[in-house]
Amino acid sequence: MKQIVPIIIFISLGVLGYFAFRMLFPDDVDVIRGQLSEMATEASFEGSEAPLTKVSKAGKLAGYFTVDAQIEIEPWGYRKVSVNGRAEIREVTIGARTAVSSLKISVDRVDIVVADNRSSARVLMSVVVQSSRQEEPWYQDMDVEMERVDGDWLISRIRNREFIKQ
Amino acid sequence: MIRVGVIILLSVVIFGWVLRPIRVTGISMSPTYRDQSLNLVNLLSYKLSDPQRGDVVSIGDLAGRENYMKRIIALPGETFSISNGYVFINGSPLDEPYVVFREKWQQAPVALEADEYLVIGDNRGMARDWHKYGRVERRHVLGKVLF
């Protein structure tokens, strides 16, 4: 019985050490996954917002992108949307927050591949958008490219993902 | 009451995770499948085995909202080309008894990646640009069409 106690302490310390290590040095995949989820939450809103709040939130959202980021999305049934650069992303975000009274964005089926040199990553994911303007949620598969800039993972490109390729 | 509950639960499980009902819309699988016909997709069919050439499968986006019914024509690692409507796999013509209508499609050789399949509908009698076909990754192959 006496022998079990040190074993339990040893295992507990090992488990604690593992979690402490993961907290201090999180895996890139976990960081990216968490960041995308955080970004979706940041982009979502409900009810009217003060103009300053809109600008502040749009600035924070734009901060998830590289300075020269490119967004090219062609929602089914709508014309293609192209946004280039962090400044334009900020403007479009402010516009979107003004145009609709509520927006809920969530990411699903996130699949992340980090390059061997850990400086870039590719994310395939499904985005679900529900806005006050549409009854039905909008689903879109997206292909996201990310770059590590000064230690932070930033989005450099977002495109529609076509699952049938010629 | 319990029976009704069990039946509802079973239906949810079976039609949610095992057999997905689908309605064929369009003519890209003609004449094998008619427009507006109903069918079922076995979502478990490729959990333990890989899709095989000739299988009619349901393919879809990750969200499962956009689905197509197509036939597996070429397997991972193979090179395919199309000449005058006839498919060639690694340089050899593919016997396709299910193809009745055939336009003179042309496609230069393309090598499939390790997890890619070539899917095409059975109706090759339509213009190539109108027919959605091409390479799909394994994870977009949702299941095998039952009937």
Q: How would you classify the helix and strand content of chain B by structural class?
A: mainly beta
SSE topology string of chain A: HHEHEEHEEEE
Largest interface by residue count? Answer: A-B, 16 and 16 residues
Q: In whole angstroms, how far apart are the ends of chain B?
A: 33 Å
Fraction of helical residues of chain A: 25-40%
Low-confidence stretches of chain A: none
Radius of gyration of chain B: 17 Å
Helix proportion range of chain B: 10-25%
Determine Rg of chain A (CA atoms, Å).
20 Å
Description:
- The complex is a heterodimer of chains A (166) and B (147).
- Chain A is elongated and about 70 Å long.
- With 166 residues, chain A is an alpha+beta fold.
- A seven-stranded mixed beta sheet of chain A has the order 1-4-5-6-7-2-3.
- In chain A, a hairpin with a 2-residue loop joins strand 6 (138-149) and strand 7 (152-160).
- In chain A, helix 3 (51-62) packs across helix 4 (85-99).
- Chain A contains four helices and seven strands, in the order ααβαββαββββ.
- Chain B has 147 residues and is mainly beta.
- Chain B is built from one helix and eleven strands, in the order H-E-E-E-E-E-E-E-E-E-E-E.
- Chain B has a seven-stranded antiparallel beta sheet.
- Chain B starts with a helix and ends with a strand.
- The model of chain B has no long low-confidence stretch (mean pLDDT 89).
- Classes of the chains: A alpha+beta (166), B mainly beta (147).
- The interface between A and B is medium-sized, with 16 and 16 residues.
